[in-house]
UniProtKB/TrEMBL annotation:
<dbReference type="InterPro" id="IPR036130">
    <property type="entry name" value="Pyridoxine-5'_phos_synth"/>
</dbReference>
<feature type="active site" description="Proton acceptor">
    <location>
        <position position="47"/>
    </location>
</feature>
<feature type="site" description="Transition state stabilizer">
    <location>
        <position position="154"/>
    </location>
</feature>
<feature type="binding site">
    <location>
        <position position="54"/>
    </location>
    <ligand>
        <name>1-deoxy-D-xylulose 5-phosphate</name>
    </ligand>
</feature>
<feature type="binding site">
    <location>
        <position position="22"/>
    </location>
    <ligand>
        <name>3-amino-2-oxopropyl phosphate</name>
    </ligand>
</feature>
<dbReference type="InterPro" id="IPR004569">
    <property type="entry name" value="PyrdxlP_synth_PdxJ"/>
</dbReference>
<feature type="binding site">
    <location>
        <position position="198"/>
    </location>
    <ligand>
        <name>3-amino-2-oxopropyl phosphate</name>
    </ligand>
</feature>
<dbReference type="InterPro" id="IPR013785">
    <property type="entry name" value="Aldolase_TIM"/>
</dbReference>
<dbReference type="Pfam" id="PF03740">
    <property type="entry name" value="PdxJ"/>
</dbReference>
<protein>
    <recommendedName>
        <fullName>Pyridoxine 5'-phosphate synthase</fullName>
        <ecNumber>2.6.99.2</ecNumber>
    </recommendedName>
</protein>
<dbReference type="GO" id="GO:0008615">
    <property type="term" value="P:pyridoxine biosynthetic process"/>
</dbReference>
<comment type="subunit">
    <text>Homooctamer; tetramer of dimers.</text>
</comment>
<feature type="binding site">
    <location>
        <position position="11"/>
    </location>
    <ligand>
        <name>3-amino-2-oxopropyl phosphate</name>
    </ligand>
</feature>
<feature type="binding site">
    <location>
        <position position="49"/>
    </location>
    <ligand>
        <name>1-deoxy-D-xylulose 5-phosphate</name>
    </ligand>
</feature>
<keyword id="KW-0808">Transferase</keyword>
<dbReference type="GO" id="GO:0033856">
    <property type="term" value="F:pyridoxine 5'-phosphate synthase activity"/>
</dbReference>
<feature type="binding site">
    <location>
        <begin position="13"/>
        <end position="14"/>
    </location>
    <ligand>
        <name>1-deoxy-D-xylulose 5-phosphate</name>
    </ligand>
</feature>
Length: 264
């Protein structure tokens, strides 16, 4: 059996943000996606927002033509459902969307929105699309995901990453404990566990040590880092950071005799 590998999905939204700041056609998020594939990305992620503030419909169509799986981030609306079923990406990640938010600031309300989400998820699955839910790392959210019958959840890592950035070790430790417990619960509940939001090289290394993590989706940090070191170099360094985290998790698990990491 080979070593465990965590997939990296590269989000190209903010290449489109830069393009749209001036208008026109450059920089092209599809070109960025092609470079990400060359650098070793396992998939491409893009969020088609209601107001089209970055990625546009034509971007999604062109991204779908690439040979690497496309993860279509979307709000659970009828318009987005129609687009997703027409484009037929490899996967759709359902996320909360508020026009006033610059980015997604929290997990999807899977508890309050359960009645709406169950048929929505079912229709995507019937269309041959893998569905994930972007959720808070809480037992209640994970149980709701099971009841909605989504096979995958993406744990929202934003609160943990914000605490790290603000230099609040107590908050960071508490938030990581929530993520660690949620990842372990995913395994027990039969949910594939992904994670994302606010991750950088260091935090990606840390969370990659959790043995249940199957995929990380990272965008804003990689695009920002590309300004300084180039996109391919940024992605390759992230792949290396994730591999380092996996190795650390394996080493911790062997030392503890449990086959996986208990801490970070």
């Amino acid at each position: 059996m080979g070593a465990r590998k965590i997939r990296l999905g590269v989000n190209v939204d903010h290449v489109a943000t830069l393009r749209n700041a001036r208008g026109g056609f450059v920089p092209d998020p599809v070109r960025a996606a092609q470079m990400a594939i060359v650098a070793g990305a396992d998939g491409i992620t893009a969020h088609l927002r209601e107001d089209r503030r970055h990625i546009g419909d034509e971007d999604m169509r062109r991204l779908r033509e690439l040979p690497t799986p496309l993860n279509f981030e979307m709000a659970a609306t009828e318009q987005m459902l129609d687009i997703a079923l027409r484009i037929k990406p490899h996967a759709c990640c359902l996320v909360p969307e508020k026009r006033t938010e610059r980015t997604t600031e929290g997990g999807l309300d899977v508890i309050g929105g359960k009645k709406h989400l169950i048929p929505f998820v079912d229709e995507l699955k019937r269309g041959g699309v893998r569905v994930s839910l972007f959720v808070e790392p809480s037992p209640e959210a994970l149980q709701a995901a099971v009841e909605i019958k989504a096979p995958v959840v993406e744990l929202h890592t934003g609160a943990w990453c914000n605490a790290l950035a603000l230099g609040d070790p107590g908050k960071a430790e508490a938030e990581f404990a929530r993520l660690r417990a949620a990842a372990a619960s995913c395994e027990k509940l039969g949910l594939e566990c992904h994670a994302g939001h606010g991750l950088d090289f260091d935090s990606a290394t840390t969370i990659a040590a959790l043995p249940q993590i199957a995929e990380l989706n990272i965008g804003h940090f990689l695009i920002g880092e590309a300004v300084f070191i180039g996109l391919e170099a940024s992605i390759r360094r992230m792949i290396s950071a994730i591999a380092q985290g996996v190795a650390q998790g394996v080493a911790q698990g062997v030392a503890q005799g449990v086959g996986g990491a208990r801490g970070a």
